[in-house]
Specification:
This protein has 152 residues and is mainly alpha-helical. It is built from six helices and four strands. The protein is globular and about 40 Å long. The termini are far apart.
Amino acid sequence: MSLFILCFVVGMTVEWIGVHTGSLFGDYFYGDNLGPKLDGIPYLIGINWAVLTFTSHAIAQSFLKNITAQIFGAAGLMVALDFFLEHICDYSGYWHFNGGAGWWNYACWFIIAAILHAVLAHYKLKGDRNSSLHLYAAQLIFALGLWIIISI
């Protein structure tokens, strides 16, 4: 539970820095569709950081045996999902970028995710591969499906 809380707090903190300074992910703000907020950051975003960290960790761990590969593979999974979410965020009222999400957004996501995954690897966290695959796939299919629909 403490690792989940750590991921939640890190997620909320980096998003706060991002929204209030623009230095991490670009110039963006959150809309109203993700529910209650703490100083402009929806609590659901912190929860999503934690859930996505745990699920991507379990997925990478089940396919990759090398710890370094697990860390970078899991961070890559997080960035991949973020890529698809960035394409639907404005339409769905989740968050709004002024000028779109640039390469810096994805670089910061990858670095922060890799740090979180290094922590999970250090504590030898074991996750459930099947549940994690299903949860990750559900989020990916949702984002990809909505992106396709709004692109037509």
